[in-house]
Amino acid sequence: MSAPMRVLRAIAIGLILPVALVLLWQVASSREWINSLFYPAPWDVMQRTWDQASGGKLPHDARVTTGRLLAGFAFGAAPGLAVGLAAGVSRTIRQLLYPLATALYVVPRIAMLPLVLVAFGLNDEARVFMVAFSVFFIVFFSALSGVEQVDRIFVDAARAFGAGKVRLAATVLLPASAPAVFAGLRVAMGFALIVIVGTEFLAANDGLGARIWLSYQIFDFPSMYAGIIAVTALGVLLAWALLAVEWLAVPWRR
Amino acid sequence: MDVSGELSIRGLTVDYGGAGGVRALQALDLEVEPGSFHAILGPSGCGKSTLIKVLAGLIPRTAGEARLPGDGSVAYVPQGNSCFPWLRAEENVAYGLKLRGVGRRERAERARDLLKSLGLEQFSRAFPGQLSEGMRQRVAIARAFAVEAPLLLMDEPLSALDFQTKIAVQAELVDLWRDRRCTVLYVTHDIDEALTLADRVSVLSARPGRVALTAEVPFARPRHQAGLREQPGYAAAFRKLYEAIEG
Ligand SMILES: Nc1ncnc2c1ncn2[C@@H]1O[C@H](COP(=O)(O)OP(=O)(O)OP(=O)(O)O)[C@@H](O)[C@H]1O
Ligand SMILES: [Mg+2]
Fold it and tell me: What ipTM was assigned to the predicted interfaces of this complex?
């Protein structure tokens, strides 16, 4: 079999189960084997998703959620990377931060929400902070362990050529730990999505999380599913975007 | 480049892990003539890499002194796979130049020249992961020559290569050295390789290492490791080094 054929075959096999499930759901719902109020048929969900997408409500909520998520991601990942690298380079910084970071890392993110609302108020700063907080620690630990796993031989080579601490960090530790950092960023992106949706459930009037939650409360289940589909699509798109960034930033791993 | 001045090591002692740790080198003395190719032989674990790393400024010495030739700068080929995987071949070669503030144009030119003399001009844009082991070691050697340091420290740069590749890189290496006249300190565990490459060979004793013997290599250049055994005096030279390594 040629390479394109193999790819097509793999895609076709991968589609069997999802397509079968959707068909089963369609039949089960339209024949009322399951309660179509709670589990509306996929066709109805698609129509509702389409209506709301073209009516502008869904795009607005998607934009709001994406904005919060990306802001939180950036405000968490950038300092996480910088502080993680610093902790990897300096034993003092590592000893200073490691215990506190380990303790905060295990706090379930959503448990922080009331405290964060008290500190920031019911606003976007609070929602962005929730995301940034969970992203920071994941990226911090992946950068730290990335630096700790850098092969000694590269450090020795750079130092023998005269690299000081700053040059060493920029020319060796940063690129050498990039694969570990990107693995951390992928995990952090997943966390960011969970946290922003959970936060919007509880503390927002717009955004995809709020849409899902409010639809549920008024028993508008097709709209609820439309929100779930939009969140899923957002997650997939962000994961792809991150892979594209990694592809560009880590060319030696292609 | 100022290559004048000899490499002179007096009473060099190195302990790992402070007091009560491992003593790797014990009062080692060594003189290396300016511009010469000096090989270091010794049993595994005797402190060969330790000696190289101290001279490269990577580990502190416990006692003793080392005077380095020229301005005291060194180039280093570590033992093992040391090419930066995230840099292309030409960027690896130019690494030390970049640290020294050499401009982009000149860096690229010097990297290309060196890669060319090592037969890698086709691969200057390749990442190390896309190169064979032999090619990677050539890149590591080119990276060391690029900075034109008066002292070149090499720690078993060819020991992972098959015989054919090793012979080819040996010839390229000697050409580069003769062209630049820097002092080379070259660690190997291969007696034949030492006899092929070096002007002089020192044998370190088992740990803690000190110089057990320094011998002149009596063969005229150019030399070739494949034909070494036909040289008159080979058997005696080999035996002398072999017995010194055995202790
Ligand atoms: N980082 C370290 N910490 C503690 N001991 C070390 C360290 N590095 C090396 N040693 C010890 O120092 C001694 C000399 O090591 P070194 O690497 O210099 O040997 P070598 O002659 O290069 O050996 P080989 O031929 O196997 O490369 C060894 O006994 C080793 O166990
Ligand atoms: Mg060694």
Answer: 0.94
